[in-house]
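Box S2. Input/output pair 1.
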Amino acid sequence: MSIQSESALAQAYELIENGNPAQAKVLLEDALTADLDNDNLVFAIHCCSFWAETFASLGSYPPYEGGELLVNQWKKFTGLVSREEQTLEKRSMEKAALKNTVYAFKRGIYSCALSKFSAIAEEKDPVFNSDVLRKAGLCHKRLGSYELALSCLTKANSIYPAQPAVLAELADCYDLCGETKFAKLMFREAFFLDAQKIELSNMDSPLINSLAEKVREEGYSGAELLEWIPVYGTLLDVFNIKRPLRAQEVGRLKQDIYARENELKNPANNEALIKPRLISMYLRLIDYYMIEKESVKRIKEITLKIKLLDSKLYKKFVE
C-alpha cells in the first residue's frame, strides 16, 4: 500500500471514529483515484457508504431509537464484513487493513450509540430503565470498557432482576474479565430462564461463542440453537457451576416439566423447541437431586425420560 493511501486511511479512521463516515468516504474516494487497484480503500469506501445514510438520518430519531438504529445496523454490517472475509484470500486486501477498518467503525458506532443511551433521562418504568442500562453496557463492552459495562449491567439487574438478556450480558462481561466462574453460573441461569431472549450476536466471550459453535456443528441454528445451548452446556460440562434451588423454584420447575410434557403430546406444538427445553429442565432437576443427595432412583427416573425423549443424545453423553 502506498504512503498516500495509508495516510488517507489513517485520516478516514479518525473521521469514522468521530461519526463522520460521509466525510471519510470523500477523502477515501479522492485517494482511490491515485491508487485504483487498492482493495483496502475500496472496502473502506464500501463501509462508509453503508453507514453514511444511517448517520445522516440520526437527527430525526429520539435518543433511544437512534441508539437502537445504530446497534441494529451494526448486526447487518457484521454480515457484510463476514462476506468480505470469505473472499479475502482471493483478493489483494490485507487482513490487517480490514480489521483496522472494522475497528474504526466499531469505535464510531458504539461511541455514538452510547452517547444516545446516556442522554436518556431515567423514567419511572424499571423495565425501560433496565433496558437502557443494558444497552449502555453493551456499548461500553464493545468499546473495551468492561468495568463500566459491568457497572451498567449490574445496575440494570438490580433495577429489574432476573432478565435473561441482562444476565447473559453480565456473564459475557465476566468471561471477558477472566471471571469464568461467575460467567458460567450466569450463562446457565440466563439460558434456563428463557433462551429466546438472548441475542448471540451481542456475545463476545470465548466461553459462549465456543459452546454455540459446538451446537451449530450438531446441525442446529436459529431458535433451536438457542434452546440446545443450555442442554449441551450442561452435558459438555461447560455450565458446571451450579447453585442449590429454593423450594419454590423446585415446585415451579416440576410444574413447568409437567406442562412441557403435555405440550409435547400435542402434534400441533413445535417439538423442535419444546424437546430441548424439556431436556434442559430434566437436567436441572437432576442437578437438584444430586446437590440434595436425593435417592438414585429419582435420578434414574429422570435419566430414563431423557433416554425416551432423545435416545441419540442419551447414548452420546451417558452410555
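Box S3. Input/output pair 2.
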Amino acid sequence: MTEYDIKKSKFTVLWGLIAFVLIIGVAFIAIWQIKNHIDTVPDTSAASTKAAVSESTTTVKKNNDAPEKIRAALLSNKNLNENERSYFLKFDSFYSEYGEFLIIDDVVKRLSTLDIKYRQELIDEGGLDTDIESIIAGYDNKTNVIKMYQTENIQEYGYMNIWHALEHEILHVLSLKADKDYRFAGDEAFSEGMTQLLLEEYVDYGTNAYKVNRVLTQMLCELLGPDVMLQHYLNGVDTQAVIDELVKIDSDRSEAEQFMQAMGLLLYDIYWFNNDENGLYPIEAISQIEDILTYYNNYYEKKTGNIDEDQYLQTYEEYLITHINSNVPELEEQYIKKNHTFIFDILTGYYSIDFRAEHPGMEIKYFKYDDAGLSDMNETKMIAKKDRYH
C-alpha cells in the first residue's frame, strides 16, 4: 500500500479495515499461532545480523548476483540499524531463488537509501493523518520511506509482529517502481495479493491480511503460471502485463481489464467501503465475486478445456463463495451455519522451495461451527500431494 493510496479521500472510510484486522485477524491468527507455535521475534543480535549479511550463499542460481548486491546495499544504508536490516534478511532465500526476476539496479538504489520512520517521528513531521489511525504500516514509493504508523521503534514492532506489517512493506519495496501510481483498481488487488502470498510462503503462513486477494492471486497462478505472475509483480507491479497474458487466452482486452478491475473493486468493497460495526461485508461483495468467477471460468475453460474436474479450482471457488456469503449481512441463503465446516485456509506452495517441500500439493484447513459458535480448526483434507509446477 503506497502513500498515494492512503491519501485518496474516497478510500479513507476505514471501519472495514479496522473490523478486518481486529475481528478476523486477531481471532484467527491467535488460534493459528497457538496451534503452530509460530516464533515471530527476530534475532536482535548485531553480530549475528552482520554475519548473516556477510554470509555467502550456496543456493544462488547461476548468474544470480542479487543476494550479494542486496546485502551490500543494506550494509551501506546508514538510515537502517542492525535490527531493521535483519527483517530484510528474512527474504534471503527469496533473493537466491528469484533474484534474476528483480529489477536489481532499481532495488539496490532503493535499499541503499530507504528509511523507516515510526509513529512519533511521523507525528513530529506532520505525516500522521488521523484518517489512517487504523493502518499499521505503509510504503511511500515516491519518498522511499516505510512508515510504521502504530509503533515507536523496531523493538516494539518485534513484540507485536503478529501482523508482519514491516515484512509486507519490504516486499512492496522490492516490487514497486519509484514512479508507480495506483491508477487502476486491479493494480492494488494484484500488488496486495501477490505480496501476501510471498510473505506467507517466505516468512509466516496464516497472517490473514488480504486473505481474499491472496486466494485470487493463487487462482491467477493456476491460470497463468507462478513464474509469469512473479515476473510481472517484480517488474513494478505490471498489471497491464497480466492483462496481456489474459488476452493471449481470449483476445477481448476489455474483458481482461474488467476481470482485473473486478478484483480491485472487491478489495475496496470488503476492506475500505465496509461500515458495518460487526465486520460484515457489503452486499456488493457477492456480485463482485460472481463477476470474478464468471470471467475466471471463461479463461480457464478456454485455456484448458476443463473446469469441473480441477480440484484446485473447485477449492478456490468454494473458499470465495463461502467466505463472502458468510460475511454478508441479512443474506437469505448463507453457506455457513451451525454444525457446518468451511474452508479457513488453503495451503499450496508456489514459490518458496522450503514451503513447496512442506506443501507440494494442496491441503485444505477447515473451521467448524457448532452449537457454541466457531469451535476449532481441526479438520484437514489433502487434495493433491504433488507440486504441479516444479
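Caption for Box S3: The first helix runs from residue 3 to 7. Residues 2-62 have pLDDT under 50 and may be disordered.
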